[in-house]
Here is the input.
Amino acid sequence: MTPELKNKLKLTFLLLITALPVTLATLSFNSAIESGALSATSNKGTLINPPADISALAMQDTDNNPVFRSFEEVIASLPDDEEYEIQPWLLVFANGSDCEQSCEERIHYLQQLHIALGKNIQRVRRYYLNVSGNPLSSEVADLFRNEYPSMGVAQSDKEVITANLAAAGAMLDFTEQSYVILIDPVGNVMMYYTEDQEAEDIMSDLETLLKYSSLG
Here is the structure.
């Protein structure tokens, strides 16, 4: 068996055991919305259907290295003797301006939302995505380091991320507001929330997806 064929078989197998449960969870979520089961709160996340890939967010670290790769790239890079490690769900707070009071308040209530997940807390990770085009101020960097050490920090180019998400049908304007973006364990960018929506809206959707998904 050639290495290329082995990689293809490995990818196919992992896609079946990993992506399928999440796909079913997404379908179940859509069905719940259509049936009215999730209509108690009027302001819920906007679905991206079909979802974009996590690489569309173009998240980079301070050395301009990619923070996340596509699921296919991750699988292709695994050696034969290494098992795939299930990733958590991601809540990415993407902010297109300097992080001032409203931004800090958003970060704080996302932390409280995360804590409120209780037994599911390890299934979710938070990220702050700076798309302002400016480096974080020393004050904001200190804020993350001292108050929110478990929240990852990354950066992205505003024009790149806007164009990539627009190609997926998600028209986000980072010059006007910030967004919380929900990503599933295999890198599907599947939903976003505007500044007008509260933590309860995000919590309601997230709890439903965690309930229906065995992953993350």
In short: Residues 35-43 have pLDDT under 50 and may be disordered.
